[in-house]
Amino acid sequence: xxxxxxxxxxxxxxxxxxxxxxxxxxxxxxxxxxxxxxxxxxxxxxxxxxxxxxxxxxxxxxxxxxxxxxxxxxxxxxxxxxxxxxxxxxxxxxxxxxxxxxxxxxxxxxxxxxxxxxxxxxxxxxxxxxxxxxxxxxxxxxxxxxxxxxxxxxxxxxxxxxxxxxxxxxxxxxxxxxxxxxxxxxxxxxxxxxxxxxxxxxxxxxxxxxxxxxxxxxxxxxxxxxxxxxxxxxxxxxxxxxxxxxxxxxxxxxxxxxxxxxxxxxxxxxxxxxxxxxxxxxxxxxxxxxxxxxxxxxxxxxxxxxxxxxxxxxxxxxxxxxxxxxxxxxxxxxxxxxxxxxxxxxxxxxxxxxxxxxxxxxxxx
Length: 365
Fold this sequence. Notes:
Elements: H1 32-62, H2 65-95, H3 102-121, H4 123-135, H5 137-143, H6 146-163, H7 182-227, H8 239-267, H9 275-290, H10 295-302, H11 304-314, H12 332-353, H13 358-361
Helix pairs in contact: 1-2, 1-9, 1-11, 2-3, 2-4, 2-6, 3-6, 4-5, 4-7, 4-8, 7-8, 8-9, 8-10
């Protein structure tokens, strides 16, 4: 990423070089990516840790599966920042210039893809949960609970770890001078399918169904209000649904350029040989990694309980982690009857001990 000679067209002075060095592009951004990733890491990791603590409190307090899914997304973002930004972009590329053992380089590449897959696919169960909650509320009460959410999250993490293994053989786009091989083609299309096309298709279908369901309900309620007396105010887009739409939309926008550049690198021009493709690949990676640090601000903008939980964490206020347990139903009537009986007896004793007024003491004539 740094200090590569810019030789997009070989001249007379390059006749003594090896063929693989003749048209090697360089990073025209210089040290800008290093500065950008350093700032993103210094901001993103503390912000995501704060988000994880706040979501943990909300999950323990409310016992809602929603917060467990958001917690999984946040944890996966932290892993992506550590493996991709810190190890991949800063250590390997900027510090060691990829001069590390090949086994370590490929192992870190597999870990990067696994963390990336987990970060994106953790949003899919959240989308499914919101779709079931809005479109099939009775079914949602039966199937959505913390224990099942934890099992689904564990399954997503295991599948993400397995899906990262084939990318142990992912080629170094910046340095490989040969054209993409058949293995590169398979890995690139597998990557863009797992990372973008498949999850975005799920987001598009489920979000469209959610919006359609909400519009149908609004039309029905508007029709009932026109035909009869006014009832409750019309339902609007819920804050949780708005947060889901924001998360999926931001992901789709930030990851689209990288997907296009990777496919362009495969069929049109190589990152290694064209400095413009190299520049586009650097910028698209910077945009894609921005997705790991923006969810905190989306949560704060939309969710009032999340803002309250963050405020409690920042101000070191404990707050109740668990909801207050109500009395068992079989004991409530007994306690109520005892308290009412005690209050009646107390009033009687006070009335008997109070002297009668002169008017009430006179006998009727």
